[in-house]
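Recall that a protein's primary structure is simply its ordered list of amino acids. Everything else, from secondary elements to tertiary packing, is in principle encoded there. The following example makes that idea concrete.
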Amino acid sequence: MKNHWIRFIQLPILSPLIAIASALLVGAILILIAGANPITAYTALFQESLTTYFGFGNTLTKMTPLLFTSLGVLVALRAGQFNIGGEGQIYLGALGSTLIGLYVQGIPAVIHIPLALLAGFLFGAVWGWIPGYLKAVRGINEVITTLLLNYIAVNLVSYLVQNPLKAPASPSPYSPLIAKEAQLPIILPQSLAHAGIILALMAAGILWVLLMRSPLGYQIAAVGFNPTAAHYARISVKNTIMLVMALAGGLAGLAGASEVMGLKYRLFEQVSSGYGFDAVAIAFLSRGSIGGVVLTSLFFAALRSGANVMQRSAGVPVTIIYAIQGLTVLFIAISLAIERRIKTQTNAEV
């Protein structure tokens, strides 16, 4: 019986590693089918994205929105809520920080940057609070509302950058440059890596303390584990759901803010390249661990960062990277099903 419990405890650690290894193995087969050498391809991929100065800077740049948004998905999952709206929340956060960067002028960076970040957080938080309210008060499934709100956010930003926010004489839809005082500093000179990654790592640390070392974290976990028992323990389930969804949206909003303030310096029609959807996979792959979210975000960012180099060096299409990401999600889903069966058998034997 003891051995059964040891194996069960080890599963949450082993299953993500097995899922990633399996995805890379199947990816190697796809690379062979494409007529390339998997060893050469993977060497080019990870060597460029993790060991070179500019490649690692690019990896950190792509990791920033992934980490912010994944933390948002994770905190919602702790309360039993599925936030599929990270993409829309990224767009709203980018809009909020852009408005502050454009229309608030004449203040120093030490005030302007926090103000723009706060606007990004609040815009994303409102976009997350809406499905939280609909779920808590109206009983409407949050998966549906968060997914639909993505399209509203994307089209809202598209309209704004094509009309009232469009830069004069711009060849394509984008806003004017935000104020220099609202731009995040570069942390690796002559690279794209900006201070957003430091903020994202700080957010991960703060969220760990909040969830693991505070009464609010206990409250969130109680609602996620058993809402009925939490209600009888005089925990407001409705308020907790609205709170975690707003917090999830705010974290994703910071992802959008960091894209505008640290990378693009203006609002584009295409704010995110699917970061919100990748974040769902990252949160599930990390199995509720904030440390796991950090490492998995780095892994996904490295895949994105080294994809073009892999294509140039080994002749492997970039689409192979998206296949590997999808396979990782598939294998983690399979591992969850297997783990659930093992848990059921273990409980039966006990």
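Residues 4-9 have pLDDT under 50 and may be disordered. The two ends are 7 Å apart (CA to CA).
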